[in-house]
């Protein structure tokens, strides 16, 4: 009887131990999954109210006494996200003329993060395009060379966070139009966009320019 | 001693029972979560090769002997998804001139599914816009009435599946440009877009047209 009781207790201890181990394993896996999918998906809708985002671009917290509002907006959320890049910022947008977003890209580059920009050749040449400013600052910019549009409007932060939607990076897009931007860290989706960026970056390598494109 | 052994066995049974119950609960929750997020997120990249999608629009499986390819493409994936609408199809796109996608919208409407379309007033009036065809078929179409753009490019299938990206629903978008479309069933994201659609549908109610918009 004593032996039976001892073996029953042993069984109990084993079962409890296994349960605790399984529970612990579940939490470790959940934690790793949370680390992988760092933040929940988020949606920003535009037009955004006109706000000042300059303080967000400073390396150390600062204040701005301009007359604009400094409250949170879809633009400040987007700025805060882009400026959070630590290793890389890959931008693939049809138009980039917004002074707020181009200042953000320049600030990220200024912090030593590798910035690459892909854009559309037709709109790159229009007044207001910030491509010249980027190139003068040493940012690598590549573009298509045909009459179809490089019409994507996405960015990849550290190769982990995808920012994508209908928003062209222009003042009209931000402050005028009905637009959407999704921020997502779903591994499969991000991987597909990382691959798309890599393919376009390679396809638009200046070494491959023909300078007599088929039109 | 006998009592101790019995109570140890009872404890063992309770622990094993609780472990099994917890495991069962975990699987039920996982299953419900999978049902909620019906299919994994998917990305389509364009331009798509020119393919025929007409057989996909037939109520019963049919063949088409036209000279075009009938293989799978980003366009056929998108068509198959839109045609799968059973209760509602809410389309909110800047431009809709693609004959393939407008035929799909008409086919969904023809099956008795409630179709609502929101578009941009400036592009609605251009040659090739399918808005007139939609209205003649009895599909409800609403639009903005200002000079900014209703620039969204999304659709909601049965209020559960979101199709969104950079793609205008035009031939150039589908067969020419570099474009992306994400198909996603993340509950929070879908909810945000359902609300955005509802707000715009209400804002663009013809009863509210001023016919002398502030420009």
From TrEMBL, chains A, B:
Q: Name one GO biological process term.
A: meiotic cell cycle
**Any single Pfam family the record assigns to this protein:** PLDc_2
Residue ranges of every copy of the PLD phosphodiesterase domain listed in the record: 146-173
Question: Would I find Acetylation among this entry's keywords?
Answer: no
Q: SUPFAM superfamilies recorded for this chain?
A: Phospholipase D/nuclease (SSF56024)
Q: Which reaction does it catalyse?
A: a cardiolipin + H2O = a 1,2-diacyl-sn-glycero-3-phospho-(1'-sn-glycerol) + a 1,2-diacyl-sn-glycero-3-phosphate + H(+)
Q: Where are the transmembrane segments?
A: 6-29
Tell me the domain of life.
Eukaryota
CDD domains according to UniProt: PLDc_vPLD6_like (cd09171)
Indicate yes or no for the key word Transmembrane: yes
Q: Which GO terms describe its molecular function?
A: RNA endonuclease activity producing 5'-phosphomonoesters, hydrolytic mechanism
List cellular component terms (GO). mitochondrion
Q: Describe the family membership recorded for this protein in Swiss-Prot or TrEMBL.
A: Belongs to the phospholipase D family. MitoPLD/Zucchini subfamily.
Tell me the protein's name.
Mitochondrial cardiolipin hydrolase
Q: What is the lineage of its organism?
A: Eukaryota, Metazoa, Chordata, Craniata, Vertebrata
